[in-house]
## 1
Amino acid sequence: MATRLIVNQRMQDVDAAPDTPLLYILSNNLELQGPRFGCGLAQCGSCSVLLDGVEIRSCVTPLSAVAGKSVTTLEGLPALYAQQKKLASAPELHPLQQAVIDEQALQCGYCYNGQIIKGAELLSKNPQPSVEQIRTAMNGHLCRCGTYPRMIKAIQRASRAIAGGGR
Amino acid sequence: MSSDFPATTFPRRDFLKAGGALLVGLTFAPRADAQQPPGGAIAGPFTPDPEQLDTWIAIHADNTATIFSASINRGGPRIRLAAADARQALLARASQQLGAPVERLTVSRGVVSVAGSPGQSVTYGALIGDRRFDVPYTGKAPVKDYRNHTIVGASVPRNDIPAKASGKYVYMQHVRVPGMLHGRVVRPRGQGAYGDGARVLSLDAGSIRDIPGARVVRRRDFVGVVASEEWDAVRAAQRLRVTWDQPASLPETPAALFERMRAAKTIDSVVMDRGGVDAAFASARHVVSHRFDSPYQIHAGFGPNCAIADVKTDSAVVMCSTQGPYATRAKIADVLEMPEGNITVRYYEGSGTFGRSCYDDVAQAAAVMSQETGAPVRVQFMRWDEHGWDNFGPAHTADVKIAADANGKLVAYQYHGWQHTWSVTDTTAQLAAGRPASEGQDGRAQSLTPTNTGEMYALPNWRIVNHRVPGLQGYFKGAPLRSPLDLAIAFGAEQVIDELAYLANMDPYVFRRQNMNGDRWLAVLNAAAEAAKWSPRKAAANLSKARVVKGRGIAVGTHLSSYGAAVAEIEVDRDTGVIVAKRMYGAIEAGQIVNPGFVENQITGMLVQAASRMLKEEVTFSRTNVTSVDWVSYPILRCSEAPEVFPVVVKRQDQPSTGVGEECIAAAAAAIANAFFDATGVRLREQPMTPPRVVAALRRA
Ligand code: FES
Ligand code: FES
């Protein structure tokens, strides 16, 4: 039996065992490249997506738990941002994606799916976070390359961009 | 560089398909390279060995270029000479086409123009057109003076970041091929001793009968499962019941590990014996001597290794994230029992690997499973495979003794270090092909060298003794982990230097300054101190009874080349034993800097990783197996614990480029250890400096 969910604002009917973790559905069935396997244990944040705007770990979230709900992956962030900000059209990049580029924040970049998803969630709830609030919010997202200092700067930069009404 | 080309066959055919190309390439035998002087050119006309070409530049008809080189440090000088040859050839063509002598031509951004006649110009790409021509490598064409560089030495943004930030980048873990099965390996949760491997006592294939489509793949003691749905493979691997023979060969405790190493029948070599060390110690004013222990640590790439293999009867294609496609190909050939020439290895980027993590193991595993099933197989290591079966950075124990005279001048330095070398046999080869465990020889980065053991100081009397521990019985697999051994060496040696400064009543920076070995070491030390606005005072001069105390430390260190120095500012909670690195300053001098922005990013990562390794990382184990198998049992530094960082790039554009990816870690780690003394007046001689160790040390004091 197919499970119906919304991924990046598009309806999807997925034919898979209901206990399949969402991550495998996104990577294999829907061929998305944002969420990616890191631990499968909800420990690292590599697989993070937004479920109705809230960050979750897709590696431990069964398909059945997201039936009828709306999933946003890294690829869908610009459109989600447009929706949140009531913009006429989606920008090419979410302000945090742009800030990550401008700060040259990442190294291998593998963890940046999760960093950007979590950072975007933070900015949607608190557009002007303090450094301490950023550190607390991002604490569940590991980075083996050690880019935390630049990731914090990228979130601050995105925060300024959002406040300036820019992208 | 392009990440999607068959690494074992020379990619020129692909370029040709896309149009013309001018090509200059260089070959060097991988093994001979270590002996070659930096920048050593290869004599004679260029005759490429298509199987071994590892440095090349190709200019395409659309005026873009593809460049591949071993690294800036090794391939850089070669690629520069090759580019000079290419430029000369292109200018000769342009001269013909534009009807102007070469002396009147100027080049900017790949466009050749006639000086004073702006309308007359032609692009490199147009000069090549849709033909292909190879330029013989001479290594003699004039290279640009470094003072005229406009791009080298400037920060140029990376071109991979936009795709990575937007989710368009294809990591190895995203690659899929038609008809592919998903595979998982089945192993004990956490490796045992390297020499023991893992032996299957019994396997109950019926235990996964209720998972449709999943089946067992077995060759000798290699066990895996495959399924067309990934989740089925994951579940089957977890559910499959296998009983393993796991001998209790590991030491009882981490402390017992170091005793075992010291008691082993080691192969000893005197790496350095300058002057009269013993006499100098006998007459020195200040002598400090201590033992230091450093644990096994894990590469722990953020995305566990992944590979896809498609093995046919007499050929194979393997995609993986190797650091060395040729070496990987040989390893795959070994398990497939197929000639190397029939195997193609394709590189796809994975997450940062920090040295030889288990990418060869996963590639071999995919190859074996594909050969067994006759279908392409994608093997994704689970987190516990990656952590538990990594080739760890080897443990190290040391006796360090250093002395200074009454003026704080170093007079003698002696370092005895114990460690085993790196493993040669990957787990899949061991389990599937029955290859015996074997290990590497002493050599750079596998054992002590003067470069990381004392060379930063002017030492009249200097002795280094390497005690090579035989690593096959009762130890783990080992491999280079970013800045191999250096962090452990600096943890000991730089603390002893600091203690001498203290005994000599001197500030630790001032003490080092008067003992550095030459201007380049001095310059990098000064750069770190200046960045930190270091004001001289004796260490531990501001001890406080407060619960949270602050300290600062300074240290130097390197890897195989380059110069590194760092300052750390930390806080110690004396009740909980928690150390937080608040601010870290790291300086690197690596000769000519090509892209300072990259180097700053590298230093940023090194400072954070050094704090992580010094404060948290340690492989734990029971008598039978490793127990560090995920991020909970092997914690690393988190965002809330990350220091503020201040990277400093010391430019020496007149000097050859050396490495920048590893050379600051040792100094940064040792600076944290020294800061702990400044904060508490107590020394820690075992790392990582975890809360239980800190609390115990403070209680003892
Ligand atoms: S992969 Fe889901 S949290 Fe690590
Ligand atoms: S950038 Fe490599 S793990 Fe974060």
Note: Chain B has three domains: 2-144, 172-247+299-388, 254-296+392-700.
## 2
Amino acid sequence: MKKRTLLLTAAAVILAGAAVAGSVFFGALETSVVSKAVERPLGADEMKWLAERGAYVAVAADCYACHTAKDGAAWAGGLPFETPFGTLYATNISPDKEFGIGAWTRAEFHRSVRDGVGKGERHLYPAMPYASYREMSEEDVDAVYAYLMTREPMRVPNRENELSFPFNIRQSLTFWNLFNLRREGFATNAARSEAWNRGRYVVDALGHCGECHTPRNLLQGMESGAYLKGAVIEGVEAPDITKEGLGRMGFDPLTLARFMKSGLSAQGSMTHQMFEVVHFSTQYMSEGDLQAMAAYLFDLDALPATPVPPPAPAPVEVPAPVAAAGRGTYLNLCAGCHGADGQGIPHVAIPLSTNASLRLASPRNFVRAVLHGIPAQRFPGLERMEAMPAFTELLDDKALADLTNWMRARWGGRQPIVTDEEIAKFR
Amino acid sequence: MTTETKPLALTVNGRPVGPVDVPEGLMMQDFLHEYLNLTGSRMGCGQGICHACTVIVEGEGGALREMRTCITGAHWFAGRTVVTVEGHARHDAKGEIVLSPVQQAFIEHFAFQCGYCTPGFVTGATVLIDRLKRKPVARAELEQVVTEALDKHICRCTGYVRYHTAVRDLILATPGLVSG
Ligand code: FES
Ligand code: FES
């Protein structure tokens, strides 16, 4: 008797569990932030003025950078994304009726951008930052839709994703969405200024900064408890951009706004993915939006009138042999371009005495730049920086550890605790 | 302001040099020009871009490496063996100058015009040939390999095609550099 009850209970629990899992799987628990209003198709006039606005919104949301492969057709997708579960390819969002989104309705577009569910109830992978775009306003999503419909249709088929089981089952994303999607869209914080709120909207919804700067949890969702506190992406650290992190790197709000515009500052030049972000997106943002972002990131209601740079970190003592070796290597291999005192050469090599990567807790970005180099880069306004050579063959682990320790201590105020073994890991 | 100096000893074009007191931050280019009167390696950009200033450094196992002297401190070369453009040609038994195969090939192909970039190209091509001696390249990849090796050298007179042909032909004519 007792045994039967137990068995029955167990069966009931299993069934209930299966029912819950099933209902999650089939999307019963999914919430949509898309209103019924978007089921009405947009009129031709609306589409016209929205498209003009949409050009700016699409730039601020940086759609192009991912939806255009290197040397590929504009908006036709194909850019690969390496994930722990396999490779994903960005899709064709040109208005081609067969391969792009030309046949998508306004409502289908809204659902895909803000709910992560595309035409025909096909779930999108969260490499598309719908977890961030979820907070976009209805009008901004309309604007992007209208703008994309004015682009040239590209007859480029989408590339099949290369994902392992079970990640190749799109419907399984219902589970991811359950844990990682906020229920609601953007909510204005009435206690804060308009600039702060706009800044949060640009940072969180359009700019989707957290997709890289917020560490990911086991499920690869953004870890809300460590919002914007920095994460490692493709071997590079997307640094902490909370106000503490930004201050430690040497930024004040006005300098940060200018950095997002120009890609260059005393703290260094934009590299890796941030170079592309400036290239495709932030350089075209309005002064107002850039300042709003800076205000929000520094948690200010209004920006100061003049830049007030945070104090430089005080240099740290380094054991004499480390200093001698580090300084020797610096003079021999670095000073030619970056100057004996780390002052750099305008338009050629960035200054190092104020460089942010030397001030970060982890030596990762600095060491990687030295080992693997940085290609020559063009910046807005005819500005450029020459290529940084790769020094992987010229410096052994010991020499690079000494150099790293000496430079971080001198200019970054960091203790000389980097070991040869740590350097070896970055090779 | 006082400039700190340090003794420096190295081998240049087969001759031992130093120890001589050299400022700590002095670039190799200045050391070659001002201390050794070897002015063949050219100062072009001074920023590590044009590669007119390169010299050969012998690495481990004798493998040759190209180094930019405008952005590398003289003291980096301490204890190393360096060949500048002045060190490529030899004198034969009769005291006549014998150019290196690379130099000869450049002359035969009319590769250079003003010649400002030539020391760098001589260095780059010599290092490439040394590399192929150790690890021959497949014929099908040869053009690509030559392009990649010379790519970083800038020639304002734009003699690129002739430099390229000269190096490729020399590689093809030298036994053991091309496989398959
Ligand atoms: S002078 Fe050295 S690379 Fe141009
Ligand atoms: S021959 Fe004049 S720069 Fe090359």
Note: The helical segments of chain B are 28-35, 101-108, 118-134, 142-150, 160-173.
